[in-house]
């Protein structure tokens, strides 16, 4: 942004904001004072979560239903944010799914669904918010990618990894295209974060994942939210086309020995 903009003057859109990382982002930015519009596939759930966050943060939070597999949904989302707040300053393109499916069993429909939500949905959300940001002459886009795909792989999630790696290809082209408009495009790459979806994978999965992280714990939604808030801030005005890995050091060891031999 070309000028300092207090958080209470900022309009933020958070896709996939009803749970997990997205909810954490919406909560933190509302606490900072931003006007937040969060989305979820189910309109009733989005409204309930928005009311809960508004009460707990004392902030301005609204929620709408938006299934980003539908190209029109992104346009409706952007229009609603501009109608409510008068402008759109920050887009946190966070909506994503991660169904497990071995490659041998994966169908074309399985691939299409993951790519439609995680990759195409992010692209459509950015495109929809672009006119409002262009009118303002500034903006921040922060994508929620992952270490899975861009940095690591995990059996059973090859379609998810492909979608998250694809986001970074989009990010670099979009960052170049939008830089002359004063719009930055960056991404956070979370490692294993304790969310409803991760906990659904079972206690043993959580235990082994925590054991593989040098800092000795799973991440929390707030860990990712703070990174997003930085990339959306005035302090990050000269950063675009970049990624910030937030994984507790999970991607550092080149082998098990490199990790377990530490002092």
CATH superfamily: NAD(P)-binding Rossmann-like Domain
Calculate Rg over CA atoms: 18 Å
Query: Which architecture name does CATH use?
Result: 3-Layer(aba) Sandwich
Which range does the strand content fall in? 5-15%
CATH topology: Rossmann fold
Number of helices: 9
State the end-to-end CA separation: 44 Å
Q: How does the overall form come out from the CA principal axes?
A: globular
**How are the strands of the biggest sheet laid out side by side?**
3-2-1-4-5-6-7
Q: Roughly what percent helix?
A: 40-55%
Number of domains: 1
What does this structure look like?
With 263 residues, this protein is of the alpha/beta class. The chain has one domain: NAD(P)-binding Rossmann-like Domain (Rossmann fold), CATH 3.40.50. Helix content is 46%, strand content 14%. The chain contains nine helices and seven strands. Strands 3-2-1-4-5-6-7 form a seven-stranded parallel β-sheet, sandwiched between helices. The termini are far apart. The mean pLDDT is 93.
